[in-house]
Amino acid sequence: MFEVVGWTTIGTEDSTLLAYPQIFGYKDGDIYLYDGMSETFFRVRERDGKILSRFCRKGRGPGEYVSLGTACLDGARDMILASDVSMNRILAYTPEGRYLPEYSRDSLIGAAVLADGNILALNPMDLDLLYAGTGQAGTCYDIYDAEWNLIRRGTVMQNAKRSFMIGYPDPVRSIDGECYYLPFRSDTLYRVTADADIPMLVFDKGRYAISDEAYMNPEMMVSGGPGISDVSTEIIGPYAFCDFYITLDGLYCSQVWDMRDGKLVYAASSGDSRPGFRLKSDGVGLSVSPSFVVDGEIFSILDYDDALRLVPDLDADANPVLLHLRYKE
Per DSSP, what are the bridge partners of residue 26? Predict the structure, then answer.
């Protein structure tokens, strides 16, 4: 299903160490990511891992974020849209970190750029109501044009239902640039366009999936009961890749669903780490998980043991190795 395009060892110049890298963009051979620990943005040249630029705008002043949530690259306008989840706002920056107030927006908690250049923007939500399964007035998200003019309201909350399927969502993009969204506590995956929210897949747990009681249940999680955390969903070709952690059993799970017929086509679990998929690069066997789909490209961050197989002299305290993948039909 996948082949290796190449890999990148991020440089450690100026003693830069990334503890929790999150890839959010790719353009002209450069990888855009932020470190979830230091809340710092980086632009890394793929061919040699050189850090071309970095910036951190953590603070409480104009153009600064109190708590960095997510980020996306608006490649057409060459800007980064970052979410400040503490202050409920979207902050726009150039790749070098210059604040762009005219492209920033208050009262939002996340954004994704649609294939046509319009923006899906997440609204703040009352999690107490959502956890209780009673829904909430309003929408998960709304659609804006590039100048933040409202195009339409999202409709997925009109179809909300109580479900233990999956946790708090962020929009994701497929390798063909389309945007997808899985609402909170819903088992229906939607493709989102400027015109409509289109149901694409109702997750049929099937005989290979975990039991209903093991799906997201915050009330039981508090007392150490079953629940799901560390949820991620990526759309690659006609498939939805879902990774999550079952707290009660201590299991990392990976599932692949075929969006054409809604069937579960692959399931695996492990007590140590995400199961991943086995493939070879230059004769070296690797276990990879397609964790980041950005701007038509697929990336995985290798575990240290797998990274050593590609880079035998890799130091234990080196920055992560990023694996660039391509989907094969």
Answer: 31
Residue 181 near residue 120, CB atoms below 8 Å: yes
Q: What is the pLDDT of residues 76-108, one digit of tens each?
A: 999 999 999 999 999 999 999 999 999 999 999
Convert the pLDDT of each residue in 100-141 to its tens digit: 999 999 999 999 999 999 999 998 876 555 555 554 545 689
Radius of gyration of the chain from its Cα atoms, rounded to whole angstroms: 20
Contact 90, 68 (CB under 8 A): no
Residue in this structure with the two tokens 């560390």, named with its chain if needed: 230
Antiparallel, parallel or unpaired: β 172-173 and 150-153: unpaired
Burial 264-279 (b: 16+ CB within 10 A, else e): beebebeeeebbbbeb
Q: How are the residues of the chain apportioned to helix, strand and coil, as percentages rounded to the nearest 5?
A: 10, 45, 45
What is the assigned CATH class of domain 2-205+299-324?
A: mainly beta
Question: What pTM does this model have?
Answer: 0.90
SS3 307: helix
Q: Checking phi first, is residue 194 left (phi over 0); if not, alpha (psi -120 to 50) or beta? A: alpha
Q: What angle do CA 20, 2, 240 make, to 5 degrees?
A: 70
